[in-house]
UniProtKB/TrEMBL annotation:
Lineage, highest ranks first: Bacteria, Bacillati, Actinomycetota, Actinomycetes, Kitasatosporales
Organism (species): Streptomyces sporangiiformans
Any Pfam family matching the protein: HTH_67
Annotated InterPro entries: HTH_67
Record protein name field: SalK
């Protein structure tokens, strides 16, 4: 049984497993189904939709709580929409709309056969098994989502499990970023410089930062010796980003150790298949990831 093995877990196994799970979780943020379902509640501004669906598990919180837990959004942007969204729709209504949107999105991207497959049910079992070992302390987004019921349908249960694992790692990652002395925008600038983060265009579009904000963050990072004059990571910057990922791995080991190496390998394989199918079906904008 997964979790019963005594074999050692390879240091990056959790990270490799998290990546496709995170990708599948994120598909709904770019889905027209989300705008339709949440829009029917009266929340129509794209940024308000984003804040509402991710923060709804926390309850009708204010802008300060959202900025703190999301970390890399400009507070001025958050405050334009939160807590106003809760006067339009309740968190419970938003969560129900989100579930309907995820259902429609996964059926559209993966197809009915994959949604109803034995592999999907297996992935759900494995993801939820791993999440049994997630810790609540200092992990507000994970803990809030862990209070939500597990959906009955396997594809929604898998998405829920992926969300728990995603938010658990994310909460720990923010603690590591703070320890590294990177504010929200500096973290995004350095991540973009790795070639794996969102492009500056999408940072501005989704996070509310201006070009002047980006330039100021770049200058601060250059002064610290983390970026060179062209905006590329220096040796020191590369080392810092790897240290951040390794420490995030350390804080996120429990669920994957609980699942065990064989279970992690199987969940990674299943998750990769589903995530690749979603990407191939056009789940994300073509210019979302990269340095430009």
């Amino acid at each position: 049984m997964p979790g019963m093995t005594t074999a050692a877990l390879e240091p990056r196994a959790g990270r490799r497993c998290h990546n496709p799970l995170n990708s599948l979780h994120a598909t709904h943020y770019f889905s027209p189904d989300l705008g339709r379902e949440v829009g029917a509640l009266g929340i129509t501004h794209p940024k308000a939709v984003n804040f509402a669906v991710r923060a709804a598990a926390l309850g009708p919180v204010g802008a300060g709580a959202v900025t703190a837990t999301f970390y890399n959004y400009k507070h001025d942007l958050v405050a334009r929409h939160v807590p106003a969204v809760w006067s339009i729709a309740t968190p419970a209504d938003v969560l129900a709309a989100r579930t309907r949107a995820v259902d429609a999105t996964l059926r559209r991207l993966l197809g009915e056969e994959a949604v109803a497959s034995a592999e999907m049910a297996e992935a759900a079992r494995l993801a939820l098994r791993a999440a049994e070992a997630c810790g609540r302390s200092a992990r507000p987004l994970y803990s809030a989502h862990a209070d939500l019921p597990v959906p009955d349908e396997p594809h929604l249960a898998y998405w829920h499990g992926a969300t728990l694992l995603r938010e658990h790692r994310g909460d720990g990652h923010l603690a590591v970023l703070m320890s590294a002395g990177l504010d929200g925008l500096e973290a995004m600038v350095t991540h973009t410089a790795t070639g794996k983060g969102m492009t500056p265009k999408w940072v501005a579009t989704t996070r509310g930062w201006t070009q002047d904000d980006w330039n100021a963050a770049t200058a601060r990072l250059r002064d610290r010796g983390l970026l060179d004059s062209t905006g590329e990571l220096t040796e020191r910057g590369v080392a810092l980003r790897e240290d951040i990922e390794q420490e995030t791995d350390r804080l996120d080991r429990a669920p994957y150790e609980h699942l065990g190496p064989e279970g992690v390998a199987r969940l990674t394989a299943l998750g990769t298949t589903f995530a690749q199918a979603a990407v191939a079906a056009g789940a994300f904008p073509a210019d979302l990831i990269g340095k430009r």
